[in-house]
Amino acid sequence: MIGSVGFPELILILIVALLVFGPEKLPEVIKSTVKTVRAIKKEMADVRKTIEDEIGDITEEVDDVKKNIIVAGDIVNDSEESEEIKGSIENNSDDNKEEGVDGREEGEKKQ
Predict the structure, then answer these.
(1) DSSP 8-state class, residue 103
(2) How far apart are CA 6 and CA 8, in angstroms?
(3) Contact 75, 69 (CB under 8 A)
(4) Is 30 in contact with 23 (CB distance < 8 Å)?
(5) Euclidean distance between CA atoms 27 and 33, whole angstroms
(6) How many Cβ atoms are within 10 Å of 72's Cβ, its own excluded?
(7) What region does 40 belong to: left with phi over 0, alpha with psi -120 to 50, or beta?
(8) Does the structure show a pLDDT above 70 at 108?
(9) pLDDT value at residue 6
């Protein structure tokens, strides 16, 4: 069976082709049809390969963009953590100033 064409359909097509083209031209028509079908299959394979190559390239680019987004997110997270640490240090510094702690040893006096 060829595709969805069964054996009875194939016989019917051959009989109609024989009646239309005659016994002398039928072999030429079949050869021409086979060449055309092969050329179409080859072109379809080339198109499929080209599309697969392009999809592969696009997939690589998307993966690169994902990596860049992850790196950018890490940078933002590091920046936010830095701001939190800086804020925490400033708050501790302000708390220490309010309590009178100025970073000197106990024995040292203010001047």
Answers:
(1) S
(2) 6
(3) no
(4) no
(5) 10
(6) 10
(7) alpha
(8) no
(9) 85
pLDDT tens for each residue of 36-72:
999 999 999 999 999 999 998 899 998 988 888 888 8
Q: Which two tokens stand for residue 9?
A: 């359909």
- Distance of CA 12 to CAs 3, 8, 15, Å? 16, 6, 5
Place of tokens 């049809």: 33
- CA triplet 90, 95, 98: central angle to 5 degrees? 125
Amino acid in the structure at residue 19: L
3 state SS of 5: strand
Q: Which amino acid is at 94?
A: D
Give per-residue pLDDT as tens, 71-100.
887 777 777 667 777 667 666 666 655 555
